[in-house]
Amino acid sequence: MVTNRLAPNRLASGGLIALTFLILLVFLVAPLVLVFARALGEGLAAPLAALQEPDAQSAIRLTLLIAGIAVPLNLVFGLAASWAIAKFDFPGRSLLVTLIDLPLSISPVVSGLVYVLVFGAQGLLGPWLSAHGIKIVFAVPGIVLASVFVTLPFVARELIPLMEAQGRHEEEAALTLGASGWQTFRRVTLPNVRWGLLYGVLLSNARAMGEFGAVSVVSGHIRGLTNTMPLHIEVLYNEYNLPAAFTVAALLALLALVTLVAKSLLEWRLSGDPSTAGR
Fold it and tell me: Residue 8's pLDDT band (boundaries 50, 70, 90)?
């Protein structure tokens, strides 16, 4: 009886697994292979020349700069927010959790438009900013704001359930023994969440480098100044400069693959870390 009941289950599970791999192959692996094939189809000379273009190098530098600013800001915010939410009870805690999830629930284009309405020349703070010589929209500060907004939840959302699962007993014991709040955080809380923290940072970094919608609205598409790598790819594609477009796309995909490998290594490390049990 057991064998007869298990056989159809194995057949169904095998079919589902095969269907999953087929969908991933068609919608994920094949386009990725095509990007690299189109980028390297004419040898290495064309991709190297495309990456040496001033606009391409500007887009690469700006993308790395934005990620280099947005990720540390989200690291600090994510740690502070998750520690407060997981370790303390205070009025408005549920509201804070909801606000952290807000960037995941609205379109990035809408968030970019909101920044234009607030900081743009005709926006709420536009006249005051112009009077003081401060430019946010259609400049690097606007791209930083948009990138910080869309990547805001990744570190906090990774740490909140982890800290809640670990409870408050170790922190309370440290405080009882005379440790200060900073000592408790640095020597008790932080070591217990270090791998989850790195995992959230990787996700935040990947989103910061690949964000298109919000950055497109606030950047103004100024070549050599405010175009990140995703925007530069769009410009090249619209100009039918396909070899250069696929070259920059392949570089961006390569950065994403490096992030994916690092994420997989962290997942493997997390699976063997007793402090992350129950994740």
Answer: low
pLDDT one-digit tens code per residue, 10-57: 778 888 889 999 998 988 888 888 888 888 887 788 888 888 899 999
The structure's pTM equals 0.82
Sign, CA dihedral 271-276-277-279, equals negative
pLDDT tens-digit map of 67-102 = 999 999 999 999 999 988 888 888 888 899 889 988
